[in-house]
Design brief:
Blueprint: H1 3-10, H2 27-39, H3 55-68, H4 79-90, H5 115-130, H6 136-156, H7 168-171, H8 178-193, H9 200-212, H10 236-247, H11 257-267, H12 278-291, H13 295-299, H14 311-325, H15 341-352
Helix pairs in contact: 1-14, 2-15, 3-4, 3-5, 3-15, 5-6, 5-8, 8-9, 8-10, 10-11, 10-12, 12-14, 12-15
Amino acid sequence: MSRSLAVLLLCCAPMAARAGEVPKEYRATVAKGLAWLAQEQHQDGHWEGWGGTYPVALTALAGMALRLEGSTVHEGAYSKNLRRAVDWLLDRTPKQPRYDGLIGDPENPTETGRYMFGHALALEFLSGVYGDVQDVKLRKRLQDALERGVKFAVEAQSSAGGWFYSSKIDAGDKQDEGVVTVFVLAGLREARNAGIAVKRETLKKGFDYLQQSTAPNGGVNYMLSPRGAANEGGRPTITAAALFLRLDTNNPREPLVDKHLEFCKERIPLADIEKSAELTHYFFAKAMCRLGDDGFAKILPDVPAKKRLTWSGYRAALFDQLKTSQQKDGSWTSRGLGLGPVLVTSINLITLQQDLQAAPLGPR
């Protein structure tokens, strides 16, 4: 990346798009990506990675990308795709004691022992769909699946407050880690926003876990030490996710927001975005979009203006890179995610459509 582009990023270069719009110069990129993603859906409604891997997680992610375009299960260009995805996920909610409420398939070799990723993403996707549904029967099916899904997530939480790749019933109560924890918290938050009851205690324990996992430099660690303290220098992806989750409370005075933001500013190489992981920007774009062009200064007012981050500057650098790296067929290949183009294409499309779900940052 050129020096001039790095300067453009750190200053307020392009004018911000109006709320609710994908910037005009990226709309064709998004449209092409969505069309490719819809074509990759299997006839029964699911998406999957290479070799049939992680179908629940990828179906939820692909569904979220299509839903952001504005379609619902009832209308829109991708309504049929969304309805098939919803039906496929609802058919994977086993009513057996050990896994009652799980949205997933513990018998699938690629999900056995790692089903909490798919469960968390399915909670997030189906909760978003729930508010759009008019069909009474489908709404009842969704409500039942979400209520049971929340219950399963609550019971899967470790006593320390985090989550692991599988429920504590399978993994034991001493297993938890940061990546799964941020995904589950995002799913529970979306369920609560949809009107599904989620205990405050569960959310608080999850946020407390992330706080306890935070190193002195503001970075969130992958896992707590055996003594229950942060013992690393922090991971950019988990820290960006924690930052977004705290900003999403609409209270920028949330503990650690300033420290997480400082860490992300230093550790996510915005001047060389191509070296960062897609999943890092999946979360950091959510946080930066929420901050807008003025939020950084509200949280870190002592940082000189030329070194402040803005959504419009960050978006220009990231979106330009995504636009130029898109394949001719509309997909993307991954620099680090090894499950195939459905995963990285879904992630990039959600990132590119952040403006469609932007919400202003509350007063500080």
